[in-house]
């Protein structure tokens, strides 16, 4: 069974409370439940984590080596400036899918750039909770793809 690590970055623990006009009213727990249901349907095993701490995210990515066959990451604001998370993704050599609930390309200019995108297999953004579901389908079909 393919194992997938789903990583959620800063402030995502406040989903359903913060900026409902951007992120909707569903909580991170609602998303985790949907991820679990879809994972079972696809024959995947997922671990779903959230941290507001860059170092903890990096530690979890490092620990993923040899355990997971894919990573899905919503790095939140770290997407736009964390070279440390970028380097962790690159060094673990596990196919990683970058996701976002909102369309980062239609928001503030500083959100248009992702420093992690070049080391990810792909990026899915703008579909709310469905970004996670679409990423699970992609993860199920990656077949060992690592960024080029």
Question: Would you write up a description of this structure?
Answer:
It catalyses: 3-dehydroquinate = 3-dehydroshikimate + H2O. Homododecamer. Its EC number is 4.2.1.10. One of its GO terms (molecular function) is 3-dehydroquinate dehydratase activity. One of its GO terms (biological process) is amino acid biosynthetic process. Helices cover 34% and strands 19% of the residues. The chain has one domain: Rossmann fold, CATH 3.40.50.9100. It is globular. The chain is built from 5 helices and 5 strands, in the order βααβαβαββα. α3 packs parallel to α4. A 5-stranded parallel sheet has the order 2-1-3-4-5, with helices on both faces. By secondary structure, it is of the alpha/beta class. The longest helix has 15 residues. The model has no long low-confidence stretch (mean pLDDT 92).
Briefly say what this structure is.
With 148 residues, the chain is an alpha/beta fold.
Index terms:
5-stranded parallel sheet, 5 helices, DHquinase_II_CS, 148 residues, 3-dehydroquinate dehydratase activity, single chain, alpha/beta
Helicity, as a percent range: 25-40%
C-alpha Rg (nearest Å): 14 Å
CATH superfamily: Dehydroquinase, class II
CATH C-level class is: Alpha Beta
Instruction: Count the E strands.
Output: 5
Which architecture would the CATH scheme give at its second level?
3-Layer(aba) Sandwich
CATH topology: Rossmann fold
Through-space gap between termini: 25 Å
SSE string: EHHEHEHEEH
User: What global shape is seen?
Assistant: globular
Strand content: 15-25%
